[in-house]
Write a structure and sequence with these properties.
The chain is built from six helices and two strands, in the order αααββααα. The protein has 217 residues and is mostly helical.
C-alpha cells in the first residue's frame, strides 16, 4: 500500500514563500522540512505530468484536425463515388435507350394482341356477331333488314374458365383399370403410356400406334 504523500497546499505555499525570498532550492526545502531528493522527485513528477497534459492537448487538437480531414476525405470520396455512378448510369441510359424502347414496344404489342384475342373469345362466347345481313325492299319502297347472328359458343367460355381457374374448371381425364373381381391393378409407367395411346387412337379412329410422352398422361 502506497504511503500517503506529504504534499499539500500549505506545504506548497510555504515552499513558494522561501523561494520568493531568494533562497536556494535546498534552503527552501530544508525550511519546509523536505529532503532534497523528495523535492526533486516531486518537481520531476509534476514536469512529466505537465508534459503529458500538453501532449494530450496537442493529440486532441491533432485528432480533431484528422477527424475533419477524414470527414472531408470521406465526403470527397463519397461524392466522387456518386458522381462516378451517376456518370455510368447516364452513359448506360444513352447507350441502352433504344433497347429499352424496343422492349417496351414488344411488351405493349404482346399485351394488345392478348387483349384482342380475349375480346374475340369473349365475343364468341357471348354470340350475337352479325354473320349475314340482307335488306329487302317491298313494293311501297320500304326496306326491311334481316340479320343472321352467331349463337353463343359455350366452348369459348369454357376455354376461358379452364385457363383462368384450372383447379376448378380444367378437364380431368381419369383411366380406371380393374382386374379380376374388380380389384385395382397395379400398372407401370409404360403400361399407363400404352393405355393412354390406345385410348387416344380409339378416339381418333386410326388404330395406329402413337408415341406417348409423360405430358400426355
Amino acid at each position: 500500500m502506497a504511503r500517503p504523500t506529504r504534499l499539500n497546499d500549505e506545504l506548497t505555499d510555504e515552499l513558494v514563500k522561501w523561494l520568493k525570498l531568494g533562497c536556494y532550492v535546498e534552503t527552501a526545502a530544508a525550511m519546509c522540512g523536505l529532503d532534497r531528493n523528495t523535492f526533486q522527485t516531486w518537481v520531476k513528477r509534476g514536469a512529466r505530468e505537465k508534459e503529458r497534459r500538453e501532449k494530450y492537448e496537442v493529440e486532441l487538437e491533432t485528432e480533431a484536425v484528422d477527424d475533419k480531414q477524414r470527414q472531408r476525405a470521406t465526403r470527397t470520396e463519397e461524392r466522387k463515388r456518386r458522381d462516378k455512378r451517376r456518370s455510368e448510369h447516364n452513359r448506360a441510359v444513352r447507350r441502352e435507350e433504344r433497347y429499352v424502347a424496343f422492349h417496351s414496344a414488344v411488351e405493349k404489342a404482346a399485351a394488345q394482341a392478348e387483349l384482342q384475342d380475349l375480346a374475340t373469345i369473349g365475343a364468341s362466347a357471348k354470340g350475337g356477331h352479325v354473320l349475314e345481313r340482307r335488306v329487302i325492299k317491298d313494293e311501297a319502297g320500304g326496306e326491311t333488314t334481316f340479320e343472321r347472328r352467331s349463337k353463343p359458343e359455350w366452348q369459348a367460355a369454357a376455354w376461358r374458365l379452364e385457363r383462368r381457374n384450372p383447379r376448378r374448371w380444367a378437364r380431368v381425364q381419369r383411366i380406371e383399370v380393374t382386374g379380376d373381381e374388380e380389384k385395382p391393378v397395379a400398372l407401370s409407367f409404360a403400361d399407363l403410356a400404352r393405355s393412354a395411346a390406345a385410348d387416344r387412337n380409339a378416339r381418333s379412329g386410326n388404330g395406329q400406334a402413337q408415341h406417348v410422352d409423360a405430358d400426355d398422361l
